[in-house]
Amino acid sequence: MQVDIGNALAEVATPGIPREALDRLDDRVAAAHERIEAGRASDEHGYATLNQPANVDVDAIQAAVEPFDDCENLVNVGIGGSALGAATISAALDSDVDAYYLDNVDPKWVADHLETIDLSKTALNVVSKSGMTAETLSNFLVVREAMEAAGVDWTERTWVTTGPEGNLRDLAEKHDLPSLPVPDGVPGRFSVLSTVGLAAAALQGHDIEAILDGARDADDALAPSLFDSPAYAYGAVNYALDQRGAGINVQLPYAESLETYAEWYSQLWAESVGKDGVGQTPVRALGATDQHSQLQLYRAGPHDKMVTFIRPQEREDTTIPETDLEGLSYLGGLTLGELIDAEFEATEASLANAGLPNVRIEIDRVDERAIGELLYSMEAATILAGELYNVDAFVQPAVEWGKKATRGLLGGGDFEEADEVAEKTELTIE
Ligand SMILES: O=P(O)(O)OC[C@H]1O[C@](O)(CO)[C@@H](O)[C@@H]1O
């Protein structure tokens, strides 16, 4: 993986990072790296994330999914870190198994899926670190009922990935379901390179050893200087630009297979650094599509953002047929890969020309090893940024109020503010 930070420097960008400021920041990166390495050495909560490749029991994962190797579909019920990592790998890589990620509790969306998926040929993976998440348990109960209605023995089609306690662990024990543990000391959003992300990948026939090899490549590339470490360079530049006013970071992958990656990155970054009034806001976008949507704002709007361009250096390709269409004959004989790469470079140049800071991330190709390297690198970048922001990157207390309010509104628990859940003045426009 390569990270080009040239378009984030003050020589070309506003806001930009003066080179001497980056040199000073590098001293903080070195100290942060030392802190991270100490946390890894003692398998400290959160820092243990970066030890994942060595801690994954690949044989246990393969054994857990082996009973389902006849399935045509995977339904993964989970939300947040219990879905987005596995979904990122599914979206990136080809498989004969159709994977569906039921994370949201949109009733029509869930019902439509259950009407179209042949549940008799489906493996159900229920994933929840806590085993208590309302969306996940509700969707599991709905899918189980649909399986029963379809005459499918759900206990023969289900495995569970969860912590040592909670409703899902109880369910697995009660029905003797195959189950996988979630790793200790790894917050859900950081758990893709563990059972949480890799079991679904294994079931889809992906080479999880190659994914872990890519993660090891990224681990090997960590160094006590941002100038020697692509992952730390990215985390440090995001932080430094945020400090200078680029409070938004647009994730702009130029590959449909990386669109879900932008969603995964958004949770990873936002839940990790969004604390104590600080934290850059990740925005999910897609190239070339958003050149016809948001680019106007990126180039001519406020310079309160940076853009992260991501692309594979190698692509499968398709030739554009010759044409005599007025003004478009130049496209004939080119390939769609040449076109999207030209758009990538032209859009990057357009933003650089307008002085908007941007960073280029390039991976070799969209395959297991490169995906593993990208995912691990972003985990390391986020952990480094947490050190630079001086926040605890491994908790997410701000999500709890809403959860309690939801339970309070539904009678699922005491929540004294329930009747003040949405304080607003009456000004409804009809
Ligand atoms: O895996 P669980 O415990 O169901 O949590 C799902 C998601 O919910 C959160 O805890 C936020 O509410 C995320 O951090 C986590 O990835």
TrEMBL record:
Pfam assignment, any one: PGI
Subcellular location, record wording: Cytoplasm
Catalytic activity: alpha-D-glucose 6-phosphate = beta-D-fructose 6-phosphate
Gene3D superfamilies: Glucose-6-phosphate isomerase like protein, domain 1
Record-annotated active site: 271 (proton donor), 292, 403
Protein's GO biological process: gluconeogenesis; glucose 6-phosphate metabolic process; glycolytic process
Molecular function as annotated in GO: carbohydrate derivative binding; glucose-6-phosphate isomerase activity; monosaccharide binding
EC number(s) on file: 5.3.1.9
A cellular-component GO term for this protein: cytosol
Family annotation (HAMAP family): G6P_isomerase (MF_00473)
Protein name: Probable glucose-6-phosphate isomerase
Name of the encoding gene: pgi
